[in-house]
Amino acid sequence: MRVCRYRLSPYTYLIEGLLGQAIAIGGQQVSCSPVEFVSITLPSGMTCGEYMKPFISFAGGYLTSDCQFSIRTTDQFLNSAFNIFYNHH
Asked: Which residues are CB-neighbours of 13 under 8 A, at least 6 positions away?
């Protein structure tokens, strides 16, 4: 379970609202260049899919054939990195 202590700050709601209205970044597709993918070092005995499945089911995103990770949409990035939801704009 995630604990969001920073929700006590009114600035969280201000930023969440501004991201939705002023910048309009919600729901956009993300195209990463090859240098922006996250390379993953796997624990021994696990496949890339097995290791990353819990994280991807929580945060979204996808894996490449050589076990690199990227997100698909701006919503996934905002939700997983900052706990900001575009639909709260």
From this structure: 88
Question: What tokens were used for 64?
Answer: 């490449």
pTM metric for this prediction: 0.56
Break the chain down into helix, strand, coil percent, rounded to 5: 50, 10, 40
Alpha-carbon dihedral angle through residues 65, 68, 82, 23, given to the nearest 10 degrees: -70
CA angle, corner 25, sides to 23 and 30, nearest 5? Answer: 145
What is the C-alpha separation between 19 and 1, in angstroms, rounded?
Answer: 25
Report the 10 Å Cβ neighbour count for 59: 15
Q: Is the pLDDT of residue 15 over 80?
A: no
Predicted confidence band of residue 7 (pLDDT cuts 50, 70, 90): low
Sign, Cα dihedral of 7, 12, 16, 19: negative
